[in-house]
Amino acid sequence: MTDLQLNGRSIAFLGPPGTFSHSAVLKVFGPDAPLLDCATIDDVFAAVSADRARYGVVPVENSTEGAVNNTMDCLVATDLKIVAEVVVPIEHHFMKAPGTGLNQLHKVVSHKQSLAQCRKWLVANWPGLSLEEAASNAQAAKIAAEQPGVAAIAGKMAATAYGLEIVASAIQDQKDNSTRFLVLGKQERKPTGRDKTSTLIYTENRPGALFRVLEPFEQHGVSLTRIETRPSKKEVWDYVFFIDFEGHAHDEAVHQVLTSLSDRTVEVKLLGSYPMASPDPLPKS
Amino acid sequence: MTDLQLNGRSIAFLGPPGTFSHSAVLKVFGPDAPLLDCATIDDVFAAVSADRARYGVVPVENSTEGAVNNTMDCLVATDLKIVAEVVVPIEHHFMKAPGTGLNQLHKVVSHKQSLAQCRKWLVANWPGLSLEEAASNAQAAKIAAEQPGVAAIAGKMAATAYGLEIVASAIQDQKDNSTRFLVLGKQERKPTGRDKTSTLIYTENRPGALFRVLEPFEQHGVSLTRIETRPSKKEVWDYVFFIDFEGHAHDEAVHQVLTSLSDRTVEVKLLGSYPMASPDPLPKS
Predict the structure, then answer these.
(1) Minimal Cα–Cα distance from B10 to chain A, Å?
(2) Which residue of A lies nearest to B139 if distances are taken between CA atoms?
(3) Which of A29, A181, A241, A245 is catalytic?
């Protein structure tokens, strides 16, 4: 549970109810928070920007499948701040409607990240099924409940919500599988003494540019926790870097790193400083 | 065209005929090379490993949508070498069967990267269509040719191959859009004087690890061209780095970098040294 204040306002998340995003909302805000379920990640960002919700919850990274590119690309464009992070263990189940026989299944529907996380299991166990991408796992469960012959891959919450039978449990290729979610809002968080800062970094397009970005972190003893590369979408084969590190933007060492980056004509967009999720192990630089 | 010798053997690629992978094969090997079309990227790797094909061609990176994760994950597991790279400009078209009216369309099928590359156009122009993922663009065109009411997003080659009508041309969100493909094989390439080397790097899971990986490149004046992060799939929130740089593994400076990395107990898997694609602009470090 969090100290983030709702003041009676709602939480936007990737719906419908029963998604892992919904689980993340429950973990942060508890069962009584008013919910605004959104059809896409873009809609979650838009709902918070337009004050239709106080906070938004979006997946940013899965421990098996990597970055959630939609969220990364929305972070490039948004003025929202990251105000918290939360890690949710992910178990995927293979499920079908009670009236559908196993030999009638011809298609499996799920979110693309979930299909990717269960790729090996599907090839080994259901090589004949066609794969269909749904906007969310819960949406996939809804489709499986309505369409004969269609199976879904989703979490237990979704099976319960749509009355499906679980045929096989914990089918994700990596048994120890978690997703990290971000909470988006408009205010900045105060330092707690155990914080993380997320940045988006635009470097010059020349040799050694990334090294010159990392050097100030090393000089000032600031530990990186994650680095991701995405196309800049400005010119072909031009990249931006998402760099997360330990500390709050108001910390002296972090301030020195940011000043040093600015001296090196590196453009830094501060995405937010927020309390580190615990007790999950820290990722490496 | 390339100096890679086929000796009468075939090229494995992500089929069916008409995919952008097929275009990449034509660009490297010309129209007379015997083809082995594969259903998945994993199958392309397997075909070359098992000597069912001499070379394999797989997409590795799109300039708008970023890394092709399937290929990255296959590179972790394979013993194959990267022997060449080729860049293909990508134009996506929205297409349908001649007998289908525009008002009958209820679904659009494409490869997940293509759906991602046309996300904004689809939201703006066809917000009501459900999205379905196919194994390739050409497979999507085949489905659109067979199923009434289904549109496809694919290249011109696929429209021609399956007799579809192009409704809207060049619909990708980023007009300047290219995909980089790798050619996989079993032999090593000799230095040409204008080469690139791809590596997979496992660092210690502790602060400053990435900095210590990049330092030798800076010290020996070796320019990075790309860095990508992927989950290691060994432990949660543990990462591996894909680092591409200028030069051949037999070059003196590169040799010094590799020795220095080895001294730092960084594990390096050499994925291959191969001639740089031209005349495309070089990416930055």
Answers:
(1) 25
(2) A130
(3) A181
B118 interaction partners in chain A (CB closer than 8 Å): none
What CATH number should be reported for the domain whose range is B93-168? 3.40.190.10
**pLDDT tens track for B136-146:** 888 899 999 99
Q: Mark whether A179 is an active-site residue.
A: yes
pLDDT digits (tens, 9 = 90+) for A106-137: 999 998 889 988 989 999 999 989 998 887 88
Q: Which of B133, B228, B236 is facing A176, going by the closest CB pair?
A: B236
Region B195-275: CATH code? 3.30.70.260
Chain B residue at shortest CA distance from A229: B228
Domain boundary assignment for chain A? 11-89+177-185, 93-168, 196-272
Q: What is the dihedral of CA B261, B264, B265, B270, to 10 degrees?
A: 0
d(CA A149, CA A169): 19
Question: What SS3 class is residue A232?
Answer: coil
**Token pair listed for A178:** 């978690």
Q: Measure the CA–CA gap between A30 and A53, rounded to whole angstroms.
A: 16
Catalytic residue among B45, B181, B217, B245: B181
Q: Are B15 and B136 in contact (CB under 8 A)?
A: yes
B28-45: average pLDDT: 93
List the single residue in A66, A178, A237 with the smallest CB-CB distance to B281.
A237
Q: Which residues contact A137 (CB under 8 A, 6 or more apart)?
A: A18, A19, A20, A92, A110, A111, A114, A152, A153, A154, A155, A158
A181 is catalytic: yes
